[in-house]
Design brief:
mainly beta
Length: 377
Amino acid sequence: MKHIAYFSIGLALLGAVASASGADIITINAHGSKLAGIGPTMQLWIDGNRVGTVNVDATVATDYTFSVTLPASGTVRLDVVFVNDAYRPPQDRNLFLNSVSVRGQTFLPTDAGVVLDRGSGSAAFDGRNAIPGQVGVYWNGATRFSVTLAADAGGNCIYPVYSGGTLRIGNESTINGHDISGRGNAIIPDTGSVTDATLDTRFFDSDSFPNFSGGGNYRGNGSGLIPGTRYDSVILTGGIVPNGDYQIGTLAIDGGVTFTGGAMYVKSMTISEEETVNFSAATLFHVGVGVSIEKEVRLRASGNPWAQFYLYGSADWRADKELRMDGLVLGAGEGANITAGKDSRITGVLITAGDITLDKEVELTYNATVQAALPNA
């Protein structure tokens, strides 16, 4: 499992890579079989233009990288072309295409919609002899991918809302002042359009939530918490929580609290209605079971996305109506569902492998400050 690097201002998008010049790096994992000591020749084409050629000498799965320039967003056509097929018994030159990776996303030749357009020269692009994509490319031809770009060239995610399951959006919801409309699983912030996208949501190992139990019970001012301590239950009635790491079975916020940074590994978390929780630095809540936020809660960080929730396994995150939040909610597991109630206003990011439900009149903001909280690794 890949892991994410954490920063004091946010998180790095998993696997997103850019070269020093700002160009994108596309990685093709492939190998070949040889004839007369010569392996397959593989070309990379973007939107009908050849951008690179490589001789695949490896006979086991190997990464081949190409430095290219891609648009900031949208969908591109990516063709991996095999051009020197040959057969002379008992030798047979073939290309074996395992995967293509771009901006943190990995695509397989066996994915739905991928085709192998068999033919040499222009015939590899005419669609007349196309079959579903496959790992073994036994003819000259182009394996064609339609790639919706989920991150910019710097590795920053361009989708503030992405669901690996089902995305449900209530009426009159907006993002950056644009009405949200369309069908799909991701929202484009510049237009409000909903599109179909593929994003690697494995920001962390969703099965690695620490197994802990025991510890004391605490109720009172947040300043009384001791960093590095394990608690069975904590009820916070106010105060400033010291920066540090904690393991807590159940965390209940029942008063105005300020978090100053650090990481809290919490099995279950609740925030009582109409409470205001302030953040003076990024605070990470690693959640094993779930988060329940009652109505009219404020998670305030002066527009900085510092309330950061990481949902493990099937942990869910549910906020009642009129939430005001500056923060991130990220789920790695397919059962990690996110729900925001009616008339909520969120400055930040909602990304999960599970479902997302936004009720009516939800206002989303994705700005430069939030984008800066998703730096390239």
